[in-house]
Amino acid sequence: MDSPAVSPTPLLKTNETSVETKGEGRERFSSRLAFYFSAVGSAVGFGNVWRFPSLVFEYGGGAFFIPYLLALFLVGIPLLVLEISLGQHFQLGDVGCFGKIHERLRGVGLASIACGYMLVTYYSMLLAWTFNSFFASFRADNFWDQDEVSGTEAKEYFYQTIIGMDTLGDDLKPTRFVGMNVFYSLLTWVVIYFSVAYGLEATGKVTYVTMGFPLVILFVFLGRSLTLEGSGNGINEYIGESNWGIFSDHPEIWSRAVSQIFFSLGTTFGIMTAYGSHCKRNEPAFLNSCVVALSNSMFSFISGFAVFATLGHLAYLEGLDSVADLEYSSFGLVFGSWPVALGTLPGGQHWIRLFFIMLFMLGIDSAFSFMEAFLTVLHDTKLFHNVDRKRASLVLTACAFLLSTLYATDAGLIFLDSVDYYINFVIIFVGFVKCVAAGWVYKIETQIECLGPKIVFVYITTTFGSVLLACAMWFGVGNAAAGFFGLVISYAMGIAYVGYLMKKKMHEDPTLTWSDMLFDLTMGNVMKLREDLVSSVGHIPVAWAFLIRHFIPQVLLILFFLGADATTIDEEGNEIKVFGSYGGYATTYQ
């Protein structure tokens, strides 16, 4: 349905102007292709070649695709449509957009920007380690000069030499700054600075290279990986075999899939809102969102083939029956596999260096997109609107560099791993609040005027209170059946009371009808938002409105508690909560 929905409800008949900011003088992408390269470049990064294969490796092989694809289509794409559409419609960054939804919701946008800024401080260290690995390959004691390097040796080289973990004690507490990583972190931030300081036009040109080159190299690496002995076994474990027991053994797989979508698409960080604000208001936001999301997932899918083909080869070399027997995880999954396989090519060292260049290019446009989101928000404020972009970029990158030095210690990977785990909960909560803002708070004053505050707030309390009660019984008491029973009973009781209040309201105002009141109560806010967005950004399916209001926030709330309730087995064989004891690290890292 391409035309704006028309409804008889008072809420949708409002003629208030939703847009005050027209975006005059705002920087624009030179073309839709430039937007695609920038947005896809932001989405495609380390998460596609490291985090996605690592999660597939950890969570049951092909079984992980079920929660991943459901998260993509039912959560990721709708949220991406929301962010890009808001940015285009209001011509503002995340803080300004949620301020337009409600003047008291600017903190929602601020939380997403802060979350992205926190993330980029450790994301930049991944780039620094890649820089270090690249330049180390030119030194006289080049690790890759050896005739044969095993995956285990490559992984240990990365951990012990590149990251500098060889000086860590048993308590895993940091003992020193790794000088080379501090230097390469500084170099990384210099590159980020020059990528964002000269405006969107320069940034767009950079992404043509940083997005295009890695795509070509990925296919080259994929082709080489598929020719290796044992690669077929790895591919079979990637898409041909699935550990279905993972859903009962590790139910947190669902929250990890959603957080992977958020990480990879760049939603909940204010990036896509910022990029949307630099598009013309009549750009097809829904189409653009689908192109960005599907391109990103396709890159992840192809990367998975390359990684698992290589893992199959390494399992063959080490005489193992399955890639699951390889002791790889996290960033070591990539550094312990691809360089080893590429080293078997003629001129292997040069291929390895090309691999590090590809990794850096994949990551750099994601890194500067976080900064772009922050700069957009600053530019939207009265206080910083006229501040020179170069000066603002310098301050932001300098502060981020100082914060990133935490990860340049010999315990940097431990800090990174811990923050990466806990930030999952932050981004899921931010996604929840964004959907509540868009689906429930937008035009709520008009809704209250039409229906009365008691009906509106009892309905909101019933919807989310029943989910919270179910979570308390499921995860607190440990009884899923009791949680489901509690959800049904509490929701039914709440809706019955809402029905009583609506009937009472109709007696007071005979002009009201059940259909109008039900529609206004259940879908009025989000359909009004959809109508306002469609007036500028074009077609948005009605299903999107339903998902934003009645599916995504409730699911994210459940996944938040599901992830927090995950358990693991400690060294003594006891079952403990992962939250608060992640990785078996000391309390310092929790």
What tags apply to this protein structure?
single chain, 590 residues, mainly alpha
Structural features, described:
This protein has 590 residues and is an all-alpha fold. Helix content is 69%, strand content 1%. The chain has 25 helices and two strands. It has a two-stranded antiparallel ribbon with strand order 1-2. A hairpin with a 5-residue loop joins strand 1 (567-569) and strand 2 (575-577). Helix 2 runs antiparallel to helix 11 (253-265). The longest helix has 33 residues, at 285-317. The chain is globular, with a radius of gyration of 25 Å. The model is unreliable at 1-21 (pLDDT under 50).
Element layout with pairings:
Blueprint: H1 32-43, H2 46-58, H3 65-90, H4 94-101, H5 106-136, H6 151-162, H7 179-196, H8 200-226, H9 231-240, H10 246-249, H11 253-265, H12 271-277, H13 285-317, H14 332-335, H15 338-342, H16 348-380, H17 389-404, H18 412-441, H19 444-451, H20 453-477, H21 480-508, H22 514-522, H23 524-537, H24 542-550, H25 552-564, E1 567-569, E2 575-577
Antiparallel strand pairs: 1-2
Helix pairs in contact: 1-8, 1-13, 1-16, 2-11, 2-13, 3-4, 3-11, 3-12, 3-13, 3-23, 4-5, 5-7, 5-16, 5-17, 5-18, 7-16, 7-17, 8-13, 8-16, 9-13, 11-18, 11-25, 12-16, 16-17, 18-23, 18-24, 18-25, 19-20, 20-21, 20-25
